[in-house]
Amino acid sequence: MLDLTSLLQIKAKDLKMNSEQNFPEIEGFSQIEDSDLIENAPQEVAIVDGESALTRFNSGLAESRTSQFDHNEKFFKEQQLPISILDDYKSAAGETQYEISANTRRVYRSSFTIFKNYCDQHNLSPLPADPRSVISFIGHQKELYQEKNGHQLSKQTINTRLAAIRFFHIQAALHSPTEHPLVIRVMRGLMRNQYRHVSDYDQQPITYDELEMLLAVIDQQPKELTRLRDKAILQLGLQGGFRRSELAEVRIEHISFLREKLKVRVPYSKSNQQGQREWKDLPKQELFSAYDAVQQWLDATKIKQGHLFRSLSRDGNSVREYQITQEKIGKGFLKGDDIYQMIKKYCDKAGLNSRFYGAHSLRSGCVTQLHENDKDHLYIMARTGHTDPRSLRHYLKPKD
């Protein structure tokens, strides 16, 4: 497993490789100097925990140079930092754990591990990385075929892996090799390459027709709580256009049953990571409204606070013990992946090819169905939380 802490502590001078020996002279690629890298790349250092914060603080206390502006680092440095600010420093440093979501952090760790393994295999430095190493990595990744479907890796997957390389370089206060002009040119060409064998489909939308089939399957469930919960998940997910992570994070405190609508507060979302006010107004009279389904689930379980969608006991007759130990960590509630697997299962049972459906099918189905219902773009965006109308073009199809 990748040891991130030790990796970030590796010094550039220790990782300087014999690039001239490892790479032959190639026109346009042979000479890459520091001056070739983008000068304005972000140079922030993220502190991931209290221990690393203390280490960096102590290194600041041990700094013996005279107070000056270092022309290389571009930041002013005190000669010494007083111990009186240590607690304040550690408190602020702890906020870096929220700079990206836990899921994004997990994906970046996995992606960077793949890059590191490639570098280790070829005796290359992963951090800092030579832009030519990144270009070679792109060449390797774009030729890979996935066993499960026989397709090459998508452009989005390769882009994510480059984003991970950039993220960990910025974390270590290093220039990101992904911003080198030659890397950018390679990726620009890859994005326009129409001859790679990649998947050419997205998750299909779940609209009223598909939802009706899924609800019919759920009604065959012998356990009442399973029926009530799963119907509420599908109907709320479709009507509200929720992402699966948002759906899993809905709490009872976020819900208001009004006379003509169900009002759901979304504290945070992919497009609202600053915690601004965001509400979804879901009309009670809309076809397949979630209003009654959510109400029936709450009436049956008697839960009054916490996560709306809970885990059930093995026999399906009771709600499991619920406990939150820290933010988003605990037991007794469903997670986004649980909802994803649930939808796949019901699609298979309903005769819908689960290969083409997933949790995102509810969100895309919301956009598609509202468009079919002759709602305008502003109405749809207010429902889904999209901030750019161009994002809707991916979902909107010409009407028959």
TrEMBL record:
The keyword DNA-binding applies. GO terms for molecular function: DNA binding. GO terms for biological process: DNA integration; DNA recombination. Keywords: DNA integration, DNA recombination, DNA-binding. The keyword Ribosomal protein does not apply. Pfam families: Phage_int_SAM_1, Phage_integrase. Residues 77-173 form the Core-binding (CB) domain. PROSITE patterns: CB, TYR_RECOMBINASE. Gene3D superfamilies: 1.10.150.130, Intergrase catalytic core (1.10.443.10). PANTHER family: PHAGE INTEGRASE-RELATED (PTHR30349), TYROSINE RECOMBINASE XERD (PTHR30349:SF90). This is Integrase family protein.
